[in-house]
Amino acid sequence: xxxxxxxxxxxxxxxxxxxxxxxxxxxxxxxxxxxxxxxxxxxxxxxxxxx
Amino acid sequence: xxxxxxxxxxxxxxxxxxxxxxxxxxxxxxxxxxxxxxxxxxxxxxxxxxxxxxxxxxxxxxxxxxxxxxxxxxxxxxxxxxxxxxxxxxxxxxxxxxxxxxxxxxxxxxxxxxxxxxxxxxxxxxxxxxxxxxxxxxxxxxxxxxxxxxxxxxxxxxxxxxxxxxxxxxxxxxxxxxxxxxxxxxxxxxxxxxxxxxxxxxxxxxxxxxxxxxxxxxxxxxxxxxxxxxxxxxxxxxxxxxxxxxxx
Lengths: 51, 248
What we know:
Distance between the termini of chain B: 33 Å
Oligomer: heterodimer
Distance between the termini of chain A: 58 Å
Low-confidence stretches of chain A: 44-51
Radius of gyration of chain A: 19 Å
Low-confidence stretches of chain B: none
Strand content of chain B: under 5%
């Protein structure tokens, strides 16, 4: 690979990896948080108040 | 088939369905992305004009394609949510927005990193780049709206309206390179001509197709997981959720 372009290419791939990892981890962390809150008996949250 | 769709709209059925499907989608997605990235970085030959800089295409194009597709899917789900008041469609709109925003931001940043060695500038106020930036702001608007109301259903309906209104920007992004003079190159494969007679050589094309398929499957897996979380919280007082929490 031409070293002239290496920084641009590897930065692009590293950012893509970061986005993929964030999209993998964020729902898992959110689920753990929700399960903890539900087991603690919390009822109020912006996303959740159903009719 | 309609009965199956109807049953799928029930939260516990959807939750089980997503639990079964998401790992398969994710596994297949990671394999395809891996093959696409390897092929793009190490197998595809360098472009005769852009040299190795063109290799950014294997992450930039899937991110840009997803940014448009996710918004379109949100608009369709938004229409279903507003017309039939289906809860799962409301959840679908809200859950897709952060994923769409992340891939839109990625498309913009990888585009800037490709633009610098190719055009000599990270950013130009070109129709394609500007309309893609507007798309990112639309995603931010939907994420903001989803958190602006205390009632989840009101928030979701507001998001659905914005998704529907904002979808007008999707064809503007896609056709901007044809409608206006643009530094940005035209569609490589996402056009009728491109599908019949690809404008890209086959050794460069197959990693791109693998990467595209992989990122779409990845979106499917991430979307299902986020929808599961929203369903879980909305249904927190239902027996099936309490049973599930007790079991874990």
